[in-house]
Amino acid sequence: MSFNESQKQKIESLIKKGVSMYAIAQAIGGNCTWTDVQVYCWQTGKMSWQGSKTIITNSLKKLPTATTEKERKDLAETIKKNVNYLYYLGKGMRGRVVEITKLLKKIEI
Q: How many domains does the chain have?
């Protein structure tokens, strides 16, 4: 789903407030689903750490009760995507920390 500028601003504002993706999708209205909001957040880097951790936790809880192979594969894929997302966010933050440390060392001299 493609969002217009006002919808994008609304999503980003609600994500910063910690609103669930399901609630955001309801606030956007139309045929928007929580997965549309999730994909937008992944693509723009707006997904919160807590949101990703919650998705991982919920998927892990559902895994033992998944009855079909398709359900298990879907849950495993969701977990994999969110773990990768957190990894790359952490890696990006580490790069910024290194840059800031270098700049601070230059200022101290």
A: 2
